[in-house]
Amino acid sequence: MAASSEKYDIVIVGAGPVGLLLSVCLARWGYKIKNIDNREVPTLTGRADGIQPRSLHLLRNMDLKRPIMAHQPAKVYEVAFWDPQSGGKGIHRTGNWAACPKFIDARYPFTTLLHQGLIERVFIDDLHKNGADVQRPWTITGFNNDGQDKTYPIEVNLKHMRTDEKEIVRAKYLFSGEGARSFIRDQLGVKIRHKDPISHVWGVMDGVVRTDFPDVKMKCTIHSDHGSIMIIPRENNMVRLYIQIASSTDKDFDPRKQATPEDVQASAKKILQPYYIEWDMVEWYSVYPIGQGIAENYTIDHRVFLGGDCCHTHSPKAGQGMNTAFHDALNLAWKIHHVEAGFANRSILQSYEAERKHIAEELLDFDAKYAALFSQRVPSAGEVGAASEDNIDGAANEFVKVFKSSQEFTSGYGIFYGPNEFNWSSDHSAQSHLFNPKGNTVRVGRIMPPANVTRVVDANEVQLEQEIPLNGSFRIFLFAGSPSKTQRAVADFATNLQKKKSFYSTFAREDIASVSYHERHNPHSYFFSICTTFASPRDRIDISKMLPPILARYSDHVYADDVWDPKVPDAKAAAHAKLGLDADKGGVVVVRPDGHVGCVVTLVAGSGTVDALNDYFGAFVSKPIGNGKPQAQL
Amino acid sequence: MAASSEKYDIVIVGAGPVGLLLSVCLARWGYKIKNIDNREVPTLTGRADGIQPRSLHLLRNMDLKRPIMAHQPAKVYEVAFWDPQSGGKGIHRTGNWAACPKFIDARYPFTTLLHQGLIERVFIDDLHKNGADVQRPWTITGFNNDGQDKTYPIEVNLKHMRTDEKEIVRAKYLFSGEGARSFIRDQLGVKIRHKDPISHVWGVMDGVVRTDFPDVKMKCTIHSDHGSIMIIPRENNMVRLYIQIASSTDKDFDPRKQATPEDVQASAKKILQPYYIEWDMVEWYSVYPIGQGIAENYTIDHRVFLGGDCCHTHSPKAGQGMNTAFHDALNLAWKIHHVEAGFANRSILQSYEAERKHIAEELLDFDAKYAALFSQRVPSAGEVGAASEDNIDGAANEFVKVFKSSQEFTSGYGIFYGPNEFNWSSDHSAQSHLFNPKGNTVRVGRIMPPANVTRVVDANEVQLEQEIPLNGSFRIFLFAGSPSKTQRAVADFATNLQKKKSFYSTFAREDIASVSYHERHNPHSYFFSICTTFASPRDRIDISKMLPPILARYSDHVYADDVWDPKVPDAKAAAHAKLGLDADKGGVVVVRPDGHVGCVVTLVAGSGTVDALNDYFGAFVSKPIGNGKPQAQL
């Protein structure tokens, strides 16, 4: 151990989507990061380009949607299916449906297509605002969790790619966002398991084309007598073509089979008949073999973590790689933060692999199922219609069911985390009968549904689920129902929050006496933000009269549930209704820092509501709470 | 005349909102501009800050809304009224209503509050993209429309403010965006007429405050026993206070009356009782006398023009100064462009003063009426309710009527231009009976109402009125009704557009044979863009089969009128319905480059529709059109 080694909270290897999102979060939250990348510059061409609806929603929560959209990306609202006509007359359209159908309650019901390099630069610009940057071209040559420094147990060896300059640093954490070929993963001896034995060789070509094919600005899946192709529109009149060049199911399969750009263009021309296609320019072209694979572990020691393509590879067809990477990074970021900030037990880091590996398994299952679904037959118009209906449970047949769950999964809104310390279930150590109030339709482990409300202080119509930025805090949504009926319950909620051993008081800010008057999100604690929403018109809400000081302090986070919503057209309080909460009685929804719901609790007079939350948080926080008993029983 | 003088299309003096918007438009459209300003840097503090709903809509059309919103401006959705309580108990809220009520069909029903300097920088950044910039600190010392150069008739003398360096240039046009104290206006001998003899001394203070006054994040008009104040929220927790310090109606009126920041703060504290207010910091403070005034002319020779504050001054209360300036600049920009590009007769420049001076007169009338309205009495809750209803014609009494028209006017959506060559009326030289089809509710001279439609090529839901950017072209909206019923009319429309002497063919691009495949807006002519909207679901529209090539060439501008709109909930084709156009038969709406409707024409089989448009455009274009007769009769 070099005594003089520079020390970092985390060394992040790789500045693709997963590494960058992790860097951005931790840099914003005050951590000292070192993010290296072995490339001289951000991605120039090619690679991932699809931001799914839920990911865009997340980027909005990070205040990064605007710079993304400033690049005027393509937006895919519909997917068109084309198939061969009989008699060699070329292809014709056999169906099309919404990329993110109405039954998914998405803020942004479309996929956003933008070159990965532009997305990376948005993250890098954000790093600069926090005094951080990516160091290039550097690579990792070794690491060792030698524990010689208790606080910074890992030694990391780095090397400049051109000058061979070496650097040894120490870190609390090491993260591999290196992509499919990961030095760190290999060093850890983590194996890749192949779920589906079939592998494919894909060709991908980005370029500017001229064509009379009418759907060139939509996502298309095209089968023809001459092969299959997928079309993805992009910014700046660019079009991406995916073409399957070989499959391990082929008799003469060669995973190293190559194809020139001219081969691919010639194939595309045949496949698209009777339409023509010509290229003005080709920006990027690549042929690569790909198989399904999943890392057996995402970490060994809970100090060195893997994420992104390093953990899961699959076909690019569903556009899930970058999106899964974003959520890997997000999931790990707030957990590291909660441990390092002294809020949560170190054991929560175990849930990173548990939660994210499960999603990767689902992704691979989905990948296989989805492929099978469409290789069998073309769905009928009626099936597509049924599959696009509002009600996800109204699934008429197997096809519609699989299709719907696929659509929900790929949008990102189908992702849910199973029961654990964060995601309440009847197996959780917190056992109050107030959990999961009757009638509520909130799905624990999933994203809280979007809802528009009116902010009381300035009468702005806002997106409630976006009101707390991605700041690492748990979001306590107090749905306060009808003011006249919940007056007592709200007062008691506040009183019990303030009790010495409550989850809220226990993790009060040390500087609570000198917090800025203008602090909006974290006036009392860095780990909680509270939003109060009344089922009442805005002009009937008087914050100082209707809310106890601890809640009134969040004056920017008091809302009126008085905005009409087409999803619940007859509801008087749409946000309450969307969550299945009684418009009189309300309820409390706890949302994890990443936007997934942790638990839902009945709002009652007395201490029960806060007691239940004490029990809930008691399952993973670092200090005893709730009357001194970490897991008090009611 | 210095033979070596540099030559410009236009010299623009002043880089405030009016000068910058003019510069941005003309620089984008390829003109050589020289924009000078006598300040060293853009506005640092103070000045205008309110972007009204229609102005934001315009900035969106210029693709400048995103950088404006990136500054996270305050948004005012409601205005609160506070008045004294009896018994010296201080103020209480007596009413509040929407800043842009629902009866106004606005895309953005709020006022956007942002420091003028930040707005200026957005324009300046855009200038840079077009290779232009503002030269500082330079001033104008003289000018002369000496005609010694026929193309560049004006000599302009400029001086650097620090070095006294002098420059003489020649220009086609000279524009004064100098503000209330205009050297150019004075040199021209243009007088300011004072409509309302009353003048006021205002104090204005921008700062960050602490207060328990609950409406500090809304626009407030506060009357108290200790005086009156207006509150305007701003970005970054800033608050602007306007306080009337003296009025010429006071017995001892002194237009030079001063007040220190401490005086104003002391007054504010008294006025706001029983609430407290304290300042963390004061960013800007100013006291200035202001009276209503309007320039008697906006130009003398149609070469030297005035605009913005140089032409109209009034109270800052309604937040109209910068917004009026934007529209002055916009109005002049496209008219200069159409003359200089050889499209329109030079005589159209006369409509600049006619159209814009009329708006300034209305503004001053409104200013006086609005002030009187609220000095008389506080409106009742019922009146406010009635005034916010959807239907502008359902006005119950005089108050509601005046209030509604005031709201519409200040939003920018009430602005309309009276009959002239651009704004068709029964007095227009074009006399076809096809103008102004029965049932249509489009109001010529006003903004085309917003409508969402689905773009056919990519299934994106888009804002139809925004689909043509501010590119200087007339926008021809072909509402094509039901495809099966308009097939013939659409075909004939296309055929007649292509006739040699049609308005469309006459102004074809010279490079029409080599226009880029990817050109979206101006494939045939720089002066026209065509959007076709069918009253049909998107998936029934086949562009290549349903549209003749001339219209199909605008493949990015073919739309399906299949998006539900809450304003016309029962309509099957909402965009058609909002315009009062028959969903079977459609109609043609011609929109000026600035978004105001020029004329509406019935869509019929035969040559009638295009004949009518030939007559309409024949009234002002520079070449004979329509069978060789500039104003053919049907």
UniProtKB/TrEMBL annotation, chains A, B:
Q: Where is the FAD-binding domain?
A: 8-366
User: What Gene3D superfamilies does the annotation carry?
Assistant: 3.40.30.20, D-Amino Acid Oxidase, subunit A, domain 2, FAD/NAD(P)-binding domain
Q: What name does the UniProt record give this protein?
A: Phenol 2-monooxygenase
Which CDD domains is this protein grouped with?
PHOX_C
Enumerate the spans annotated as Phenol hydroxylase-like C-terminal dimerisation domain: 416-623
* Classification via SUPFAM superfamilies: FAD-linked reductases, C-terminal domain, FAD/NAD(P)-binding domain, Thioredoxin-like
* Pfam families, per database record: FAD_binding_3, Phe_hydrox_dim
Question: Keyword annotations for this protein?
Answer: FAD, Flavoprotein, Oxidoreductase
Q: Which InterPro entries match?
A: FAD-bd, FAD/NAD-bd_sf, Phe_hydrox_C_dim_dom, PHOX_C_sf, RIFMO-like, Thioredoxin-like_sf
**Gene Ontology molecular functions:** FAD binding; oxidoreductase activity, acting on paired donors, with incorporation or reduction of molecular oxygen, NAD(P)H as one donor, and incorporation of one atom of oxygen
Q: Does the keyword Transport apply?
A: no
Protein family per UniProt: Belongs to the PheA/TfdB FAD monooxygenase family.
